[in-house]
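Q: what does this look like with iron/sulfur cluster bound?
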Amino acid sequence: MAKKGVILCVCQGTCPSFQQMNIFEVLNTLRREKLVDFVAIHPQLCADDGDTFFNVFLAGAKDSVEKLVVAGCDPNMQKKMFRDAFEATGFDKAKHTGVDIRNMTTEQAVEAIKKVL
Ligand code: SF4
């Protein structure tokens, strides 16, 4: 069955851009409202081990994932940073949607993510 999910990426959790929101509550709200099939938090998807994460995760899931929302930094930056990992795993990059949630509160981040689901 096709799955829809959200990964929150938070610049190691140390960047002020993510300090106004409760990242766990952002994902819990989406879970409570049953808007997604899976959620995850990764500290730094643009680091080398972010590529490894995508390789491991998408190796088994590239066909079953119909939509992968990454909430974090600028969507255009995401496209460039994740391109190699998506190509390496054969994941259709059209299934990836980025959403910028920097400097948002919990409620604002939830609303921004809902808009792209
Ligand atoms: S992918 Fe974006 S949100 Fe994630 S660590 Fe890199 S710059 Fe920050």
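The longest strand covers residues 65-72. The pocket of iron/sulfur cluster is lined by residues 9, 11, 44-46, 72-73, 81 (CB under 6 Å).
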